[in-house]
């Protein structure tokens, strides 16, 4: 391997770690990004195939820090305050241990918690996390979220400005704030995963790049902060993602869970997910992510829909309704009860949700009801519900699926 | 770093509050103010008269115009403020979350801008 290849490899594996530490040492996101860039440019000049530093990370952090001080000094000819910043950075010499090893892992957590700070706009949290923690380019993030690069760049600039002006601290939250703040981080990861797994608009059902990024983030969190809900979320993402290839036909048509070819499921990933579920549940502090993962694990382990452990799934939804009630959880519980007690029971529960006015704009509520009516041979009711679902969905494969069902029903 | 905490509440609700509730709120505010004086966060603060006492002033083409009432009609009105000194935004949010008005209305936390000399 020549020096260039080695540097590329280190960039991929460690540039985010180096950035996280530079942000702490320099106290500024933009300055740290420039310093990171300068450090790698310097590495390209200084490193040769047989003379890569023993600790490349420490070398990059220390070089980046000096480059930033240089940069600020040059700027101080125009602005005295900038010179002051340079002096204060230079005055706090980081100990060697701070440039490599344990300390660096804390910096990555600091970066995650800062990017997901609840005082930032929710969209900005996602964009900033993908940019700074995952290292995606602004264009990639914009494409994934079907927006333009300038819009996304502006969102990131605003968030960084707020971090600086409102002084959002670069730190891991205190023990008492941790549960709430960790929720905010997990929520960002879960939104990224969902956007990848079930794109809210557009021609493709899934955008695998985002799911893969979310799983990478989930692994990072479990590695840095193995809290039960972090473990539960990683399990949930792995178990859902394991079914990816079975969810659509080669032509891009949707295949529902009960009709999926289960030999296409990723068994290794399911095994990993199931092991994580057990770890999360054995803590006895599992929350909504852990419970949803447990439900996903029961689906993943069943040979087919009829041998799925529906009573246990319905029971897990009961627990989920107690600790984190929402109309969507209630809908999923209704679907599980329909499998346990028959379609009538499910329809009654869904009707109860809809009559409250909840989920009136949620296409899956109507698809679920339509499917249960179809099974009972209540064709007219099924058509009405599918038509409502069709009017509510913007996603091309979902639309095609519902149109297919409608065509079958109308032919009788 | 200094932050201004702007307390917004529905002032009609405040105005029609039964006497014992009003007294309870006053007691909560004085207890809160004491606590942030002790912790060193307190820099200043006051309650405001209702917006019916407000006058908005503008100067256009060197002419002063005054209108009755606040600049914007909103559901919640600015009813008071604290100026605090906090370590960072997390510290400021922690203080703001203990302001009694946050339980019924909302508190906007704004960092104070510092201009270079």
Write a short abstract of this structure.
The complex is a heterodimer of chains A (412) and B (117). Helix content of chain A is 70%, strand content 0%.
Can you describe this structure?
- The complex is a heterodimer of chains A (412) and B (117).
- Chain A is mostly helical.
- Chain A has a domain at 3-100.
- Chain A has 19 helices and no strands.
- In chain A, helix 12 packs across helix 13.
- The longest helix of chain A is centred in the N-terminal third of the chain and has 24 residues, at 3-26.
- Chain B is built from three helices and six strands.
- In chain B, the strands form two sheets. Chain B has a four-stranded antiparallel beta sheet. In chain B, strands 3-4 form a two-stranded antiparallel ribbon.
- The model of chain B has no long low-confidence stretch (mean pLDDT 94).
- The chains are: A mainly alpha (412), B alpha+beta (117).
- The A-B interface holds A 81, 117, 119, 165-169, 171, 173, 177 and B 1, 87-90, 93, 109, 111, 113, 116.
Counting helices, strands and paired strands, the structural category of chain B is: alpha+beta
Oligomeric status of the shown chains? heterodimer
Biggest sheet: strand arrangement of chain B: 2-5-1-6
Under CATH at level 1, the class of chain B stands as Alpha Beta
Helix content bin of chain B: 25-40%
| Residue fraction in strands of chain A | under 5%
Overall mean confidence score, pLDDT of chain A: 90
**Which sequence of SSEs, written as H and E, runs from N to C of chain A?**
HHHHHHHHHHHHHHHHHHH
Helix and strand content put the structural class of chain A at mainly alpha
Radius of gyration of chain B: 16 Å
Strand fraction of chain B equals 35-45%
**What count of helical segments of chain A does DSSP give?**
19
Number of domains of chain B: 1
Could you state the order of secondary-structure elements of chain B as H and E?
A: EHHEEEEHE
* Distance, first to last CA of chain B: 17 Å
Count the E strands of chain A.
0
Q: Main interface pair?
A: A-B, 11 and 10 residues
Going by CATH, the homologous superfamily of chain B would be: Dimeric alpha+beta barrel
Instruction: Summarize the biggest pleated sheet of chain A.
Output: none
Q: In total, how many beta strands of chain B?
A: 6
- The number of helical segments of chain B is 3
């Amino acid at each position: 391997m020549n020096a260039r290849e080695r540097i590329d490899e280190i960039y991929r594996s460690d540039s985010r770690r180096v950035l996280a530490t530079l942000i702490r040492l320099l106290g500024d996101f933009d300055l740290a990004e420039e310093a990171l860039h300068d450090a790698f440019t310097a590495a390209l000049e200084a490193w040769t195939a047989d003379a890569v530093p023993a600790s490349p990370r420490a070398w990059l952090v220390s070089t980046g820090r000096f480059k930033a001080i240089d940069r600020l000094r040059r700027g101080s000819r125009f602005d005295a305050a900038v010179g002051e910043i340079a002096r204060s950075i230079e005055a706090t010499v980081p100990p060697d241990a701070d440039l490599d090893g344990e300390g660096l892992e804390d910096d990555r957590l600091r970066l995650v918690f800062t990017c997901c700070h609840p005082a930032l706009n929710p969209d900005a949290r996602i964009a900033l996390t993908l940019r700074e923690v995952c290292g995606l380019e602004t264009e990639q993030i914009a494409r994934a979220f079907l927006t333009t690069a300038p819009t996304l760049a502006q969102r990131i600039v605003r968030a960084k400005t707020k971090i600086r002006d409102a002084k959002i601290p670069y730190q891991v939250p205190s023990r008492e704030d941790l549960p709430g703040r960790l929720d905010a981080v997990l929520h960002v990861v879960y939104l990224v995963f969902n956007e990848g797994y079930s794109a809210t608009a557009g021609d493709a059902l899934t955008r695998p790049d985002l799911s893969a990024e979310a799983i990478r983030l989930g692994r990072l969190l479990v590695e840095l902060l193995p809290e039960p809900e972090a473990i539960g979320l990683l399990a949930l993402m792995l178990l859902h993602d394991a079914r990816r290839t079975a969810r659509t036909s080669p032509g891009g048509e949707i295949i529902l869970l009960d009709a999926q070819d289960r030999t296409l499921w990723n068994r290794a990933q399911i095994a990993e997910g199931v092991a994580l579920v057990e770890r999360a549940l054995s803590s006895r502090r599992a929350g909504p992510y852990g419970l949803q993962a447990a439900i996903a694990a029961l689906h993943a382990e069943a040979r087919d829909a009829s041998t799925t452990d529906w009573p246990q799934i319905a029971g897990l939804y009961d627990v989920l309704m107690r600790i984190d009630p929402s109309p969507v959880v209630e809908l999923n519980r209704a679907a599980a009860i329909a499998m346990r007690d028959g379609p009538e029971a499910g329809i009654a529960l869904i009707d109860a949700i809809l009559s409250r006015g909840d989920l009136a704009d949620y296409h899956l509520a109507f698809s679920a009801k339509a499917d249960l009516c179809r099974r009972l041979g209540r064709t007219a009711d099924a058509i009405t519900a599918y038509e409502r679902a069709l009017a509510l969905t913007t996603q091309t494969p979902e639309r095609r699926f519902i149109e297919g069902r409608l065509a079958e029903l109308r032919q009788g | 770093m200094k932050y201004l905490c702007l307390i917004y509440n529905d002032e009609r609700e405040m105005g029609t509050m039964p006497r014992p509730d009003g007294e309870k709120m006053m007691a909560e505010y004085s207890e809160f103010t004491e606590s942030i004086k002790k912790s060193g966060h307190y820099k200043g603060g006051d309650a405001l008269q209702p917006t019916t006492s407000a006058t908005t002033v503008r100067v256009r083409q060197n002419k002063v115009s005054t209108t009755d009432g606040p600049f914007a009609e909103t559901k919640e009105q600015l009813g008071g403020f604290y100026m605090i000194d906090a370590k960072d935004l997390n510290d400021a949010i922690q203080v703001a979350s203990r302001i009694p008005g946050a339980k019924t209305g909302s508190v906007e936390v704004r960092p104070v801008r510092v201009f270079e000399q």
